[in-house]
Hints:
Elements: E1 10-19, H1 29-38, H2 40-43, E2 63-76, E3 79-87, H3 91-105, E4 112-115, H4 122-132, E5 153-155, H5 156-161, H6 171-177, H7 192-197, H8 202-223, E6 234-236
Parallel strand pairs: 1-4, 3-6, 4-5
Antiparallel strand pairs: 1-2, 2-3
Amino acid sequence: MLQTIKLEHILFLDIETVPEFENFNELSEEKKLLWEEKTQYQRKDEFTAEQFYDRAGIWAEFGKIVCISVGFFSFKNGDRTFRLTTFKDEERILLQQFSELLKEHFSKPQHLLCAHNGKELDFPFIARRMLIHNLPLPLKLNLFGKKPWEVPHLDTLELWKFGDYKHFTSLKLLTNVLKIPSPKDDISGSDVRNVFYNDKDLDRIVSYCEKDVLAIAQVILKLRQEKLLEAPEVVSV
Length: 237
């Protein structure tokens, strides 16, 4: 089934997120209580709500997106190209830009969105943040009333599970076992908050995010048993 999908119909993507505010004390008193309630199970007695706030970026209600990187295949005269680009403005603006891309280039029935663990993280996170900003959901993220087989999303984690719902494999581990060049040679997901707020180095985060997008595309190629992308085929725009 995976082999029947045209690669140029897939938009590969990854997002990077951070806590919505740099410090816990910037939250309203009501939001502080809501954060305390939301994280009580995860924190147990090991951390206070304030100490745990560095992890707020994993929840759409308390985090925000700082960049969305996307990649897509292009075929011309027998040559294969993988084009990468990133939206990295203020959150509302980058969400609008991403939505426009979907509307103009990836809105047809055959088009699919692809991410690693995207069904649990990237796709719902983007949709929730759009609604928080009062933005209309693009067709590919509006899943209300859709049956599971009508959802236009590919998830490399789900594909690797082969129906084993208990199994979680990180993108880093998956690329290792599939002998794909590692996308991680600088920072990790746990570093993004500090790189954004302390180092104020968004470009470093973008580079990290784009490497993930490339890795996801490589996983799809590997699962299709096709030749991996080589450096000259990858273009950042």
